[in-house]
Hints:
By secondary structure, this protein is of the alpha+beta class. The chain folds into 2 domains: 1-34, no CATH class; 40-240, Gcn5-related N-acetyltransferase (GNAT) (Aminopeptidase, 3-Layer(aba) Sandwich). It is built from 5 helices and 9 strands. It has a 9-stranded mixed beta sheet with strand order 7-8-6-5-4-3-2-1-9, with helices on both faces. A hairpin with a 3-residue loop joins strand 1 (41-43) and strand 2. The structure holds coenzyme A.
Amino acid sequence: MSGRLGCERFGLSGPAAPGRLPRVTPPDRSLAEYWPVFGLRLATPRLVLTPLQDDDLVEVLDLILSGIHDAGRMPFAMPWTDAPRAELIPNTLRYYWTARGATTPESWQLPFLVRRGGVLVGLQELMAKDFAVTKRVETGSWLGAAHQGDGIGTEMREAVLQFAFDHLKATRADSGAFLDNPRSQRVSEKLGYSRDGTAVLQRRPGERAVEQRFTLSPGQFVRSNWAVQVRGLPLCRAYFGI
Length: 242
Ligand SMILES: CC(C)(COP(=O)(O)OP(=O)(O)OC[C@H]1O[C@@H](n2cnc3c(N)ncnc32)[C@H](O)[C@@H]1OP(=O)(O)O)[C@@H](O)C(=O)NCCC(=O)NCCS
């Protein structure tokens, strides 16, 4: 080995400049080689969706800290956005790291970053249990407050629904929204979901909330005139248990 640390393999000709650490992963390598779902990419007319990776977490935290909903409201069954900043940040990191670490072909949870013109606008999650048998997916999503009300929520949900129905061959997609979240309910209605009963939950400590459940089959799905572009699926079919 000619260089003291073998740095030239990584495109470095010598020790890193003061204050800068050398890159550990060679520029021509990526973790997608070993965790292929990181190579997945969905594209719609306005949006690009890619599985969340650690390098994206600073932007995700910035977007969360910029605000998702008014303090008086709570669109989430787990009231994670109520936590003070000092707890919200580590809780959020733990949540995404745990979700990824717990993912198996039998129980997967895939948070897609959603970018519009390169700018992170929100997250669209797609998850399933025993997908090979159930062929059923669930979705959950949020957008930064500044990006809401412009059709993005509908477009990103449609992206993962087209991906699930057309590419993973799902036969059912379920979702839910609290009765006091008409915007999220409207997204489901526009895409053709039918109402599928209600659930009663303790949303915040001591606060009872009713969730409207929605279900969608490929035949009911109200599609736009575009088709989601999917890249990288063949290498990650095992991730989805198919
Ligand atoms: C829910 C959410 C993802 C939807 O995304 P979005 O980009 O804001 O939604 P869209 O613009 O695609 O569609 C919203 C629809 O609701 C309608 N809408 C908005 N406010 C409404 C209200 N008060 N009552 C009824 N409909 C309403 C809009 O008019 C639009 O329907 P239209 O296209 O028929 O006009 C986004 O608003 C969000 O992140 N909210 C906070 C977090 C959240 O609620 N997450 C979901 C938890 S279940």
